[in-house]
């Protein structure tokens, strides 16, 4: 499959394509029901049609069994094309009921025997991605969860490849270029796992600031420890770590602009697009490291192939980031979104879309009061007097709390090395570079953000594009109302100033 005499895995000459490698193989996926997992399953079914089976670890949730959750997942529009191209392909998906926080992943002896006899590639993407997750739960999922997946991997005799999904921000506490390597931490992963088991909640919470150090949250901290545990515990298993930045809507596949959640940049588009969000903390010149989900999935699949074909002796890290020479700043992002929203407004709009980004905490508080809290309080009072539900003021408080966890990332920029990413891309044959693209230099932000905006409208907010004319009419009406209110406010201010200066009557006559 490659030249075994060469020590550097990037110097080999692979003799097998990615789809050929996965033909007849079975893979095991954690995090399958998540945003990334859906696209990973769809891509494997569509571009590796001869894959044998895809085992997906799914936990029962809110009264729904694991199989019911998978059945619901497969009804998503993201699978429409692959089901049309390859009828019956979803029969290759095998539901495995379990959870990464359970011992042995909660697997039964029967399913364990199936995995032992069948699985040769493991993709581990399950994690808690909440920035404000309590540290104990983040440890259980993002560190101990890695340990449990490794325990499974060591029981799989056919295993030739393990791919772990981390984050580019696992080392965001560094004040230097972040390289594609695993950085040391002040505490060992096993020590953290042990502490989470025996320490009381009060003690654990008390030492959390010291443990996190310069890390902004429990997510980045536990992901960095998870990488160390993976490196030290993988044994001889060929392993790669994929570090995506902010995973956002798809660029091309399975549908341009497809997205299914409000996380990170999607929340900004929805918030600013509806006029609900008017201000946020951030440096306008901060680079937004957005990574379309299809580029991340393509790298994950390529790394699965790389591990098995090139047999690296060390754990290789790959930064999955759009070309940094062609990045977009927060200022440019909002400017482009304003243009696309003007042409494709959201029907759920409550105010004309506009947004301000400021580095000043004080000024942001003033803007929040003027644009968010004061209008919300007035509307809630009006609704309460009419006997209607009061919720707007409280909702804004929740939004402000949620947005505060993003401030570290909207105020700072990072440089990421992508040497390994470039080397991996060059190993792929031309057909694979086209089919499993992840290192694209021809990325067009204008087209992407237009599709992103439309994706938020269609797939997240469930708005019908046929109602676009109604949305434009609503936008025009809201703009008129806003301009009238501004005019009235200006007149009131002028009248007040005139009254205070003793020339009320003359100035008022001139104004009116």
Can you walk through the features of this model?
The chain is an alpha/beta fold and 512 residues long. The chain contains 21 helices and 13 strands. The chain has helices at residues 18-22, 35-47, 66-73, 80-85, 109-118, 135-142, 144-153, 189-198, 201-212, 218-233, 265-273, 293-310, 330-343, 361-385, 392-404, 407-411, 419-427, 430-435, 445-460, 468-501, 504-511; strands at 26-30, 53-58, 93-97, 119-124, 161-165, 239-244, 246-248, 279-281, 287-288, 290-292, 316-320, 328-329, 356-358. Strands 3-2-1-4-5-6-11 form a seven-stranded parallel beta sheet, with helices on both faces. The protein has a two-stranded parallel sheet with strand order 7-10. Helix 2 (35-47) links the parallel strand 1 and strand 2 (53-58). The protein is globular and about 90 Å long. The mean pLDDT is 90.
In short:
This protein is of the alpha/beta class.
**Mind describing the biggest β-sheet?**
7 strands, parallel
Helical segment count: 21
Beta-strand content bin: 5-15%
Q: What helical percentage do the residues reach?
A: 40-55%
Distance between the termini: 85 Å
* Oligomeric grouping of the chains: single chain
Give, in spatial order, the strands making up the sheet with the most strands.
3-2-1-4-5-6-11
What integer is the average pLDDT?
Answer: 90
Q: Could you say which structural class the secondary elements and strand pairing correspond to? A: alpha/beta
Radius of gyration: 26 Å
The backbone outline, from C-alpha atoms, is globular
Residue stretches low in confidence (pLDDT < 50, at least 5 long) are none
- The total count of strands amounts to 13
